[in-house]
Amino acid sequence: MQYFTLIGGFIGFSLAFAVSLAAGKNLEEAVFSATVGCLLTALLFRLFRLSLEYCAKQIIAEKSRLRDLENANQANAQAPQESQNIPPAHPTA
Questions:
Q1: What is the pTM of this model?
Q2: pLDDT tens, 38-84?
């Protein structure tokens, strides 16, 4: 994840440069288009990485919450039930 933005910029530059040359632009216009493509793709990859990290954090928090809830339920189920000696409502004589 450290080089995610850098890889995105490289991919954007390469694709934009290749498409510009294939479209018949001269070298200066192709490099300019590739530079713009590099910046935009790098930003898109960065946003994608941030959304992935946000989703991962949410999933981890949810799993942690569910695990804590399950542990609490197991602890309640294993707790000994105290027998309550309730005297009868009508004493027998």
A1: 0.66
A2: 999 999 999 999 999 999 999 999 999 999 888 888 878 776 555 56
- Is 44 in contact with 8 (CB distance < 8 Å)? yes
32-37, long-range: CB < 8 A, 24+ apart: 37/12, 37/13
Q: Which residue has the tokens 């040359």?
A: 21
27-78 and 4-22 helices, crossing angle to 10°: 150
Q: What share of the chain is helix, strand, coil (3-state, %, to 5)?
A: 75, 0, 25
Residues in the chain: 93
